[in-house]
Amino acid sequence: MAHRVEKMNSLVREIFGELLDQEISLKQGVLVTIAKVDTTPDLRYTRVSVSVFPEQEENYALVTLRHEQNRLQKALNAKLSMKIRPRILIESDHTEQSADVIEKLLIEIKQEAGDK
Hints:
- The protein is α+β, with helices and mostly antiparallel strands.
- It is built from four helices and three strands, in the order αββααβα.
- The protein has helices spanning 2-23, 58-67, 69-79, 95-115; strands at 31-39, 45-53, 87-92.
- α1 (2-23) crosses α3 (69-79).
């Protein structure tokens, strides 16, 4: 079962990445990358987590992607030759920002420990 989910994640990542490049036009300087793809075990839903650069354009990019979600879904369905085609859910990925915050906190802790 896990192998099917991994295979679906990989396939959706590949196809969705192509669709982002070919089908979606964002304003100049906005970059959207797929951070993570997570499909439910029953293959009915796939959560596509995206990273947006620059960060301040995240809201714009998510609104644009969600506005185009039906078109992206249809294009994905056309490329998937299987009975069950997962419904895509687009969300923002904050893993990198969280890692930056943690890294800064660790640096502060080291500096405070060094001062004592």
